[in-house]
Amino acid sequence: FPNNARLVGKPVVALELSMELSSEVPGASADWPSDITLSINGAEIGAWTSPGDFADRRGLYTPDWWKLKGSQYGQLKSWRVTPDGAFIDGVKVSPITLRDLDLASHHSIRLRIEVKADARHPGGVNVFGRGFGNYDQDIVLRLTTAA
Question: Rounded distance, CA 89 to CA 131, Å?
Answer without folding.
Answer: 23
